[in-house]
Amino acid sequence: MQTTEQLADRMGIEFVTLTLDEVVGRMPVAGNRQPFGLLHGGASAVLAETLGSTLSALHALPERFPVGLELACTHHRSATSGYVTGVARPIHVGRTTSTSEIVITDEQGRRTCTAKLTCLHRDTRP
After folding, report:
1. Which value, in Å, is the radius of gyration of the alpha carbons in the chain?
2. Using alpha carbons only, what angle is made at residue 28 by residues 25 and 33, rounded to the nearest 5 degrees?
3. pLDDT digits (tens, 9 = 90+) for 19-61
4. On the CB side of 98, how many CA atoms lie within 13 Å of its CA?
């Protein structure tokens, strides 16, 4: 597995909690803004997929290998500074798929994005 030049590192994502019940991580707004100074929606999607995929991996590995199948994000409000924090929790964990809800909030605890990620659990390493 390649551990250098990962997107999560470039985005500044830090893991806070890693359990089977939830994966929590945070990401700085600085460096992840769109041209109008707001957190880029794609950056929120990267945070959501990173946390949700990690949660799936905690459930599936080492027997199966999770890969993202579908990601849906709803952006509720903008963030302009500080950090956003994402919390991924399982909705469904099965043998072949898992689905997580990821809630991203700003430093004031306001929801900025709600995402849902479904991962396929493969028999072979991608």
Report:
1. 14
2. 125
3. 999 999 999 999 999 999 999 999 999 999 999 999 999 999 9
4. 29
* Tokens matching residue 56: 């799936």
pTM of the model: 0.94
The active-site residue out of 22, 49, 63, 70 is: 49
Is 49 among the catalytic positions? Answer: yes
β-sheet with 14-18: strand ranges across = 14-18, 23-28, 83-93, 97-105, 111-122, 65-75
- DSSP letters for 25-81: EEEESTTSB-TTSSBPHHHHHHHHHHHHHHHHHHHHTTTSEEEEEEEEEEE-S---S
